[in-house]
Amino acid sequence: MLAGFQASAQSKFYISTETNFIYDLYQVTDEGNAAGPSNIRTLDFPGATLIAGYELNSVFSIESGIAIRPVKSGFSLHFKEGGSGIEGGGAYYHIPVRTRARIPLFGDWLFATGSIGANLSVTDPTRVGTNFNSDSGEGSATKNGNEIYSYTTQYTSWNKYFFTAAAEAGFDFKISPKFNIYSTFTYNRGFTNLKQTNIQYQYKNEPQRNASVLHEGSYLSVNIGLRFHFNSNEK
Predict the structure, then answer these.
(1) In angstroms, rounded to a whole number, what is the distance separating the alpha carbons of residues 20 and 9?
(2) Residue 26 resides in a domain
(3) Please, what is the Cα angle at 14 between 223 and 115, to 5 degrees?
(4) Rounded-to-integer distance, Cα 220 and Cα 214, Å
(5) pLDDT tens, residue by residue, 187-214
(6) pLDDT tens string 41-93
(7) 8 A C-beta contact, residue 63 and residue 40
(8) What is the CATH number of the domain that holds 62?
(9) Residue 4 DSSP SS3
(10) Residue 68 and residue 219: Cα distance in Å, rounded?
C-alpha cells in the first residue's frame, strides 16, 4: 500500500524552455533566374518557447505551450555584376500542440526523441484581419555610366490566424533526476499566404521580368532546451 501511494503521488508533469534558431523558407517564382529571398543567413535574435508536458507513459507524452519566433521578409537580386536586396523583420506567435516519443539509447541518460503536431499561430494579434500594402519601391545600378539593372517592388503582408504542421527529431540528455537538456531539429510547413514581395526587374537590354518571393509560414528550426521534471524519482 505504501509503494502504491508513493507511485501515485509522483507527478508526471514537466516544463521546458527552448531557444529556437529559425531559418525561414520561401516560395520563389521568377521568369528569369535572378530573384531570391532576403539575406536569411545573417545572425538574428532567436525565438523562445515555453512548454508544459504530461507523460502518458514511459515513452509518450503530450505537450503544449507558447512561443515567439522572428520572421523575415524581403527579396534579393543577383547578377554577374552584383546585386541588391531589401530585408524586413517581425515576429509571429505560436501555440504548439504535439505528441512526443522518447526512446532510450544508452541506459537512462541518453534518449532519441521525435514529435509530430501543429502550431496554432497568429501574425500580429493587434491587427488580425487587416492587410498591409507598401508603395512601390525602385532601385538601379550603373557602371561607367551604363545601367546594369533596375527594379521596382511592391510588398504585401496579411495579418491573420494560421497553422503549421510540425515534425521534429533530436536527442535528450539526462543530467539529474529532475533536469534534462535536449537538442532537436524541426520542420514546420505552412499553408497560408503571409508575406509576399512582387518584383519587376530588367538586366541590361534583356526583357523585363516578373518575380515574387512568398512566405507561407514554413521554416526550419534548430532548438536547444532545458526540461524540468516535477517527478524527482530515478528512472
Answers:
(1) 34
(2) yes
(3) 45
(4) 16
(5) 999 999 999 999 999 998 899 999 999 9
(6) 555 789 999 999 999 998 999 999 999 999 988 899 998 888 888 888 889 99
(7) no
(8) 2.40.160.20
(9) helix
(10) 13
